[in-house]
Design brief:
Blueprint lengths: L1 H14 L3 H9 L4 E5 L5 E4 L1 H7 L3 H4 L13 H14 L4 E3 L5 E4 L5 E13 L2 E10 L1 H46 L6 H32 L7 E3 L1 H19 L2 E6 L6 E3 L1 H17 L6 E8 L3 E8 L33 H11 L3 E7 L3 E9 L1
Parallel strand pairs: 8-10
Antiparallel strand pairs: 1-2, 1-6, 3-5, 4-5, 5-6, 7-9, 10-11, 11-13, 12-13
Helix pairs in contact: 6-7, 7-10, 8-9, 9-10
């Protein structure tokens, strides 16, 4: 009962507050608060408006609101306010389809956000607008946009310029190895050329990763999904990774539900996801360990889980495994080799398919990456 009584008292106090209090609050607001009458003549101009526009309240009092707008916006602005008064009785944002611009006393235009409210005072319409100068934010957004564009351009140029020599190395290495089959190349040279060929292939893969992560960031990653049987896709991806597993001394096993559904996926991109995730598991699993890839049916999804018996990921690092260039570090151990792009790219591709990817891990036990794609 006491709480209800207090609530009633607070409500009564609110409704009996003098209008001068609200007027004082509006007067010191950092945002511009401007009120006009039915003729759109200014009848209220607070301190925030004076600071933003550069005019004093005495200078603009009784003047038309249009003086605060760039010339090109003035004709349609009157109609917008009148239309709002006829159709709306509540506050709403202005400029929902285009940026609002204000005009300072100095003649400088500036970007702004604004909202408008129609009120009836003594039987007459009064329109109150609250306007915020967003020049600083606009400049920051423009700078960020320019920086992203410059980064994307630089990544494209560097990737293109690196890919040409990498391809040249691969082609020359393949040519030398072809000659080696006839016995015209010494065995020690063959070994060195094979290492060169592998290094060029790694460089080419890194270039592709850089391009993919740039496309993901820009929302330009292209996927062409269609209904496909996932079993052969998983099997082919794992077959390509078996030499890596044998070299690392890790057992790579696969299992499948009997009634696997078709999955809505881009075959090439789906294979790329599996290669990144399984390759990552192999890299973090010591010799003698095991990486298991299980494919099963979900309620309306196809699920593939990659489980390793590696060192695991500390709980504090789990939220960052999909961050670009992130590489785990264990108690003074150096991070593993690699650019740290495999999982972020896999995440971007899975999300582009409308799917999900998650990681569960326990230090000393291993890690499971679960991918779900729509069927």
């Amino acid at each position: 009962m006491r709480e209800a009584s207090n609530a009633v008292n607070r409500a009564a106090m609110y409704h009996t507050l003098p209008p001068e209090l609200f007027s004082g609050i509006l007067a010191v607001s950092a945002d511009a608060v401007v009120a006009v009458d039915d003729e759109q003549r200014i009848i209220f101009f607070n301190q925030g408006a004076e600071q933003i526009f550069g005019w004093t309240a005495d200078e603009v009092g009784g003047q038309y609101l249009a003086m605060l707008l760039p010339e090109r916006y003035r004709p349609q602005h009157r109609g917008h306010v009148e239309g709002f008064g006829a159709a709306h009785g509540r506050a709403r944002l202005m400029g929902e389809r285009q940026r609002i611009s204000g005009l300072r006393k100095s003649g400088e235009e500036f970007p702004a956000e604004a909202s408008i409210q129609r009120m009836v005072v003594d039987g007459r319409n009064v329109y109150a607008a609250v306007l915020r100068d967003v020049t600083a934010r606009q400049q920051a957004e423009d700078s960020l946009r320019q920086a992203i564009t410059a980064r994307d351009d630089m990544t494209g140029i560097v990737s293109h310029d690196l890919r040409n020599p990498a391809n040249a190395v691969k082609m020359l290495a393949a040519s030398i190895l072809s000659d080696a089959e006839s016995g015209r190349v010494p065995p020690d040279v063959v070994e060195r050329v094979q290492v060169m060929q592998q290094a060029a292939a790694q460089m080419d893969a890194l270039i592709q990763d850089l391009l993919d992560v740039t496309r993901i960031d820009a929302g330009r990653l292209r996927v062409a999904p269609r209904l496909v049987d996932p079993r052969p896709l998983v099997h082919q991806a794992l077959d390509a990774l078996r030499p890596l597993a044998e070299l690392a001394g890790v057992t790579l096993v696969e299992s499948y539900d009997e009634d696997l559904p078709e999955v809505y996926a881009d075959p090439e991109r789906f294979t790329q996801v599996l290669s990144n995730v399984v390759g990552n598991a192999l890299k973090f699993t010591p010799a003698g360990g095991r990486v298991s890839v299980a494919s099963r049916r979900g309620e309306s999804t196809f699920i593939v889980s990659v489980t390793d018996t590696g060192e695991g990921i500390p709980a504090a690092q789990l939220p960052h495994v999909f961050d670009r260039f992130f590489q785990g570090r264990r108690d003074g151990h150096s991070p593993r080799q690699g650019a740290g792009l495999g999982l972020p790219i896999a995440c971007g591709i899975v999300e582009a398919h409308g799917g999900t990817i998650r990681v569960e891990s326990e230090v000393g036990v291993g890690t499971t990456v679960t991918i779900e794609l729509p069927t």
